[in-house]
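Recall from the previous chapter that SMILES is a line notation for molecules. Here it describes S-adenosylmethionine.
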Amino acid sequence: MGLYSHHIFPRLMDWVMAGEEFRRLRTDLLSGLHGEVLELGIGTGLNLPHYPKTITWLHAVDPANLLPKIVTERSTRQSFPIRIQHVTAESLPYDDRSFDFVVSTWTLCTIPDPVKALREVRRVLKPNGRFLFLEHGRSENEKIAVWQDRLNPVQNIIGCGCNLNRKIDHIIAQAGLKLMTLDRFQMQSVPRLGGAMYKGTASRPD
Ligand SMILES: C[S@@+](CC[C@H](N)C(=O)[O-])C[C@H]1O[C@@H](n2cnc3c(N)ncnc32)[C@H](O)[C@@H]1O
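With both inputs in hand, we obtain:
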């Protein structure tokens, strides 16, 4: 899996996820952010050009170090300071109540224990902080969901740990975050199995 997971998959992922519909969704999610921001699973840094200048710090975690030269190039073009740490979201190296926003895009599908990761998000959010998510997951259409279940083991292999069938809203609730907005839609440029989207905002319960 070394050649595939370290070289082929990240390039393929970067190419697919830099598409026009992905870019529009990223801008739409991130344009209102400000202050101290944490991104879970920064990947190849595709969100970087979409952060507004109103953010004061971007911290990011990802256990993998995907296409480091491209990530560095994308980072140096931004006006805000960026610190990336190669650790998992399930154990965040930050103090309680540190962030105004935590962002996750197309990452909760892959994190091995997403509930544990979101409990960490709940811990590191400031009292009025917000968790912003843009994720694919289990379809509302039962016929599609059945195929997502069937093909999940294959997706796990070709998508390097990606799951097609996670109920993102349930995972957020299970972690004790309060769902404030949830938009469900189908991406037009992605096959239906992988394009059932969950976009929204959650907060600490207190
Ligand atoms: C499909 S990629 C999405 C990358 C990026 N968020 C984007 O929108 O382009 C999923 C990312 O989740 C990362 N990941 C996997 N396990 C993780 C974990 N335990 N904690 C944080 N990130 C993780 C992967 O390394 C990968 O970069």
